[in-house]
């Protein structure tokens, strides 16, 4: 990645605040890691903020394992926990003095311009320069949700949230361009342009570093513009969020023989996928991390699955066998939380049984439907 000609992102002693949103599984954490690496390589200090409705976040584990100062806001979205977002920024300021904050909101949230970036500009405009808000999409998911292609998808109320996320974007970022041929990419661009005619669309692959320089240059040099915020039907939004089942759990794994944790993660993802496919419960994102008990370097293995008809992918590998360690499972699907819990409780022993001497102990499990969004602030317009 070319890092030599980029503008300096901090202006007038203020830190820059960059928010990278988008639906579950779009590639936000991957992009946050890439942007943080680029800025760090340029000698800038970064502070990352992750967010989720539950606790024990795979994303925090993934970003910390890359060496970045990361604070998490569990138990609610940025908009409902605005003060926690500010406190997390203050903790990062105390520990890492970031030139740039990069925040990843929960993938089922919308209305972030009115409830997060505009209040930040109003209340903390002396501390932060707020960058344009990016909304990333997985192109296969987007083609389906926008009705261009058929395929497993979400119900209309979930699709409402998806469309609202795109409507409020300052920049729409089509990610994973490596997955589509030119014709399908073009039909996605056309569909987005027809629905969101005034929003600029960029095309990137966060995994393969395609198009990232142009996108990151904008995030580090431009300031979010001011406009009237969109209308949101909070009843519909709440209903859409409540259709999603959420499960976060921690499992302690131990064996007397060394085992291949990368293979275990893939096996477990396959077990969960198979069971949810049978139930026709659409996976939005299954992400799991395994951190070996012996690792002092913070190495982790990460596996992700972003829809029922895709394959579980190992984003980070351990390479070395492990004897014990901690497994985080974060699963979001359009399904009842009870179904997700039953699925995980069956899948863990089924996967573990394939590895001699391996035993699993469930440490903590929470499963729920996200509650009604109740933002701390909602600004109709930004202060100029
Ligand atoms: N093929 C391909 N896969 C990608 C790309 N960027 C991210 N992914 C994969 O997409 C999956 C989801 O990526 P994440 O970065 O975890 O997505 P996210 O938006 O942070 O997901 P949530 O935090 O659950 O909302 C992972 O398997 C990534 O490796 C890309 O450019 N190309
Ligand atoms: Mg993420």
Task: Summarize the structure in words.
By secondary structure, the chain is α/β, with parallel strands linked by helices. It is 35% helix and 25% strand. The protein is built from eleven helices and 14 strands. The chain has helices spanning 28-41, 58-64, 82-96, 112-124, 139-145, 156-167, 182-195, 212-221, 234-242, 261-278, 337-352, and strands at residues 15-22, 46-51, 70-73, 100-103, 128-130, 134-137, 171-174, 200-203, 245-259, 282-292, 301-305, 313-316, 322-334, 359-368. The strands form two sheets. Strands 1, 2, 3, 4, 5, 6, 7 and 8 form an eight-stranded parallel β-sheet that branches. Strands 12-11-10-13-9-14 form a six-stranded antiparallel β-sheet, sandwiched between helices. The longest helix is centred in the C-terminal third of the chain and has 18 residues, at 261-278. The relative contact order is 0.17. The chain binds guanosine-5'-triphosphate and magnesium ion.
Low-confidence stretches: 1-5
The bound ligands are: guanosine-5'-triphosphate, magnesium ion
- Give the percentage of residues in beta strands: 15-25%
What overall form do the CA principal axes indicate?
globular
Largest β sheet strand count, sense and barrel closure: 8 strands, parallel
**Helicity range:** 25-40%
Give the integer mean of the pLDDT values.
94
Number of strands: 14
Structural class: alpha/beta
Order of SSEs:
EHEHEHEHEEHHEHEHHEHEEEEHE
- Helix count from the secondary structure assignment: 11
Rg over C-alpha atoms, rounded to the nearest angstrom: 20 Å
Distance between the termini: 34 Å
